[in-house]
Amino acid sequence: MPNIVIPPELRPGDGRFGSGPSKVRTESVGALLAAAPTYMGTSHRREGVRSVVRRARDGLHDLFGLPDGYEVLLGNGGSTSFWDAAAFGLVERRSQHLSFGEFGSKFAAVITAAPHLEDPEVIESPAGTHPLARADAAVDAYCWPHNETSTGVQTVVERPSGSEPDQLVVIDGTSGAGGLAVDPTQFDVYYFAPQKCFAGDGGIWLALCSPAAIARIERIHASDRWVPPSLDLHIALENSRLDQTYNTPALATLFLLADQVEWMLGNGGLAWASDRCDRSAEVLYGWAEASPVAGAFVDDPAARSHVTATIDFDESVDASVIAATLRANGIVDTEPYRKLGRNQLRIALFPSIDPDDVAILTRAIDFVVNALA
Questions:
Q1: Quick one: DSSP state of residue 11?
Q2: What is the CATH number of domain 28-266?
Q3: Best exposed site among 57, 73, 156, 335 by fewest CB in 10 Å?
Q4: What digits encode the pLDDT tens for the residues 231-265?
Q5: Cis peptide preceding 12, ω within 30 of 0
Q6: Is the CATH number 3.90.1150.10 carried by domain 11-24+269-372?
Q7: Is the sign of the CA dihedral 360, 365, 371, 373 positive or negative?
Q8: pLDDT tens digits, residue range 259-312?
Q9: Rg of the chain, C-alpha, whole Å
Q10: Domain segments of the chain: what residues?
Q11: Contact (CB, 8 A) for 298 and 305
């Protein structure tokens, strides 16, 4: 690899652009350090930790403007564990899935493998695009990602036209939650993990659940379906109402989540956070469109993610060398999703990332491209 030194004026103030784990604000780490003597290493069943869980749950309720009757559930394991929990506790018989990247397809695979469920209806489209959900009386849940982290495609969250009230809309918000606007009346479950827009570590899942979703959880609980306790959404519901988890959570993760939610609320809430991501996206995609060697991977501007952008490069430029050079200069985690296999960079635009740093990053990339030429 060529030894290219990027000038200091072309280095962002913070060089973390990873799509997860994401940039954690220094102020959050400082707040955790200050709280550590009385918080870290204490019982998650006691008020010291439960008060932090309460801050996170109440904050998320406010951030998303949840209607009356919606509840914030949490549990251990991250979004991948939530897929398993949903297979046991949300899908009654058959679900519909939109598959247009790694994470939507993985959830569909979980449901397909579940021996107590019928094979799901899976609607696919090529990477870089997304299909649309369609009403089907034979399914009881519609499932898709708000943002496909692997490809940089975002969707609109809205109930399929013609769907019935007893059919749940279950949205994977993992990389979009907190950075993309969403109408809570259009979903029944919006689940995510905190290592993306919420600038924390992984290891827990959170789910914003409508009254219909709560009723579904309770109805399945009352049936004869066997559910592993660690994946039992009814147990998660009962514990969440007590501001705790069924088993021991990662305390640092909870604290960073609560601090990030309050930071967002203090600056103007979800509208402010999504606008910040919009500004970063405008900078990055505008640069790519004007570049002679780069361009957005996603053709449809409306489907281009405003939280995880994928930028293709001309074959005359090796994007892996660009990413390696950036990393050597302290600008990290711009590599593409490993399974997509494209000559591209993937750049996170989460709320914690300063839009001005995104602008400087584009100039740093130009500098490296010119140096390589």
A1: S
A2: 3.40.640.10
A3: 156
A4: 999 999 999 999 999 999 999 999 999 999 999 99
A5: no
A6: yes
A7: negative
A8: 999 999 999 999 999 999 999 999 999 999 999 999 999 999 999 999 999 999
A9: 21
A10: 11-24+269-372, 28-266
A11: yes
